[in-house]
Amino acid sequence: MMHDRNGVGFDKVYAEAIMMIPKFEKALFLYLKNDRSENIDDLESLLKDEGIVSQLSLHFFAQLPDSYTPAMLCWLFFGRSFECMVEYGEEMIRNPKLNFLLRRLARVNIKAIINRSIAIKARTEEDWVKFVEELDEIGETPNVTASVVSKFKSLPPDTKVTMKETSEKKPIPGKQKKRRSLEELLPNGDEYLFESIDEHVSLRQSGRDLALLYLVLEKGRAMVRTTVTEFHAALVVRYKDKKNIEIPGHRWIQGGKPRRG
Prior knowledge:
The chain is mostly helical. The protein is built from 15 helices and no strands. 25% of the residues are buried.
């Protein structure tokens, strides 16, 4: 749901927030109206002062059947949450149907999300460099994210230059940015291969299990050159209607890959 490009997941999170803290709705509206807004500190302070922590704890432990809070918190702390928020912001910026104000605020929020993820040690600077490289490789260059990353002080000079160049890339007119399906990633795969993958995924869905599947397909030369991000997206699309299959976040698969010594 959080990876739906129509923003359905974010709408659910917003609805939960204003249900817990009614004042947040007006505060957010004023924030959006202020074209000089450069950070979200005031919004965070409001949520803290109004008791968002106790509200989240209450809804988490109550386990109410119609509450999205447990799933939301699990996604935030263990899923591909920061990356998903940044990707959505990049898509908003590229959307010509949105007005300038919303696109400008999306730019501000991308910077805030990245910096906050590093401040709370949920992500590292290296994580964001890899994020930019992976999206750029599949034709979805995150220009704003690359610009933010290029300003990281601890990065090697050559990495800063690469990030700066990436941030200045222009989209190719008429080129549709599209992630490939699993069938496209496995162009020579036969019915037996896809049935075997389906069976494996239906029985084993942990990040480590899917990371091993990625490595087997990659090392066995069955899969074309791709990234974990695109492989993850292909799995999400293939199994989105399977109620018994829930693909974990991108970072779980990335984290499950054995490190090279």
